[in-house]
Amino acid sequence: MHYKNFIFICSVFCLICLVSCAQGTGSGNVQGGDFTVQGKITHAKSKKVFLKQINFATGSPIILDSVDIIKDSTYSFKTSKIKGQHLFVIQPEAGYPFLFINDASSATLNINGDHPMTPEIKGSEGTTGLYQFLATYRTDDSSIVETFRALDSIHKIATPTIKDDSVRDVLGTQRDQRIVQMNKDIQHYVEKTPSPIAAFYVLKLMAPRSIQPEDLLPITQKASERFPEDGSLAGLASQLKVSLASSNPNNYPLMGQSAPDLSMKSPDGQDIKISDFKGKYLLVDFWASWCGPCRAENPNVVKAYNRFKDKNFTILGVSLDKDKDAWTKAIMHDKLTWNHMSDLKYWNSAAVSAYQFEGIPFNVLIDPTGKIIAQNLRGDDLENKLAEVLK
Fold it and tell me: In this protein, which residues make up the domain named Thioredoxin (predicted)?
C-alpha cells in the first residue's frame, strides 16, 4: 500500500498552494482566447484581488492582473490572448487562493474569504468538477489520517505487558481500504473530468501520494489518449516512463559498485557508518516517518528481517526526517528493531546525492565486500532476493 505524507499530511488547501511550485510541462489546448471571470468576494482581508496563471513549466505563478474590490464586494477580470486551457488562481491580496479553469468564455466565482474550499461557481464545468473532487479527496484524506492517529494512540499506551495487536491489525486494514477508495476516487475523476488541465493537476500533485508509478502510468496514458491535443498529459506520461526505466536495476548507476560510505547519528546520538557493517549482507533502507509508502512497506521489511537476521544479514535504516521525535516514534511504532541513522536534513540529506535516488522508499542491498548487488527491493522481491543470496 502506497501513500505519502500520512502523519504530517498536506491539507487540500496546501495542495492548492503547492500548485504554484509544481513542475511539469505546458497546458492543454481545449479552450482559450478571451475569457471573463467575475463575482463577489465576502470577508476579504484586503481591497485588492489578483489573477494569476499557474505555469507548470517554471513552477511559478504569473500575475496577469489585479483589480480593486469595489464597494458591493464585486470584482471582474477580462483577459485576452490566453491560448489553451490553463489553471488560474484568484487570490485576495491577504487571503486564500482559489483555483479557476478557463474552460468557458465567461464564468462566475463567488468567494467567501473565510471558507477557501467552498466557492460558488457558475459557468465553468471544469472548475466545478475540480472542487467537487477536492471535497471528496479531503474526506478520503481525513479518514486516512484518523486511522493513523488511532494507531499512534495505541502505540503511546502500549507497554511490554499491554498490547493490542488485534486492534492495530483492524486499523491497519481500515487504512489500506481507505487508501484503495481514495485511489478509486482519483481514477474515476481523471477518467470523467472534461478538463485536461484538471486531470493533469490531480495526476501530477495528488495521485503520486497514493498510487505507485507503475499503476499511475496507465491511468496517465489513458488520460492523455482522451485529450490527444494536450501536451501536459503526454509529457507527464513520458516522465513516468523515464522514472520507471530509471528504477530498473540495470539502469541504476551504482549497481555493482562499492557502496558510498555515509556517517550519521543514531537516535541516541551515536555515530554510525555504512562501512561499519562490512562483512555482512546489508540492506540500506531509505525512508522517513512522514512517507506513507515507506510506512506501508515497513511490515514487509520487518518480515524479511526476522526471517534472515541470523544469516549474516542486517538492515540499516537511513531516514530523511527533519523531526527527531517523529523519526524515533515511527521506529518504535513500526517495530523496526535494526540500526538507524539520520542527518535530519529531509531531501537535503547527504544520502540522496550519494545514492542517487529521487523518491522513497528506496533501498540498496550491499554484499559483504561492500558492493551494491540490488536496489529498490519491495514486498516479495525483497524476500526472494535475500533467499537467493543467503542460501
Answer: 253-391
Q: Which of 264, 270, 266 is nearest to 338 (CA)?
A: 266
Whether 90 is in a domain gets the answer yes
Spatial separation of the C-alpha atoms in residues 333 and 327, rounded to whole Å: 10
Among 111, 89, 112, residue whose Cα is nearest residue 101? 89
Say if 46 falls within a structural domain.
yes
Are residues 276 and 317 both part of a single domain? yes
Cα gap 41→111, rounded to integer Å:
5
User: pLDDT tens per residue, the chain (391 residues)?
Assistant: 666 544 333 444 444 554 443 333 334 333 446 889 999 999 888 889 999 988 766 566 789 999 999 988 999 999 876 777 888 999 888 888 899 999 999 999 999 988 878 899 999 999 999 999 999 998 888 888 888 778 777 766 555 444 556 787 888 788 888 889 999 999 999 999 999 999 999 998 888 888 888 899 999 999 999 998 877 888 888 878 867 776 676 678 899 999 999 999 999 999 999 999 999 999 999 999 988 778 888 999 999 999 999 999 999 999 999 999 999 999 999 999 999 999 999 989 999 999 988 778 899 999 999 999 999 898 889 999 999 999 8
Q: How far is CA 237 from CA 163, 225, 262, 357, 388, in A?
A: 45, 11, 34, 20, 34
Asked, for residue 169, whether it belongs to a domain, the answer is yes
Given 224, 247, 270, which residue is the final one in a domain?
247
Report angle CA 120, 121, 122 to the nearest 5 degrees: 130
10 Å CB burial of residue 251 (0-12, 13-18, 19+) is exposed
**Domain presence at residue 262:** yes
Same domain membership, residue 210 and residue 262: no
265 and 367, same structural domain?
yes
Judgement on whether residues 361 and 274 belong to the same structural domain of the protein? yes
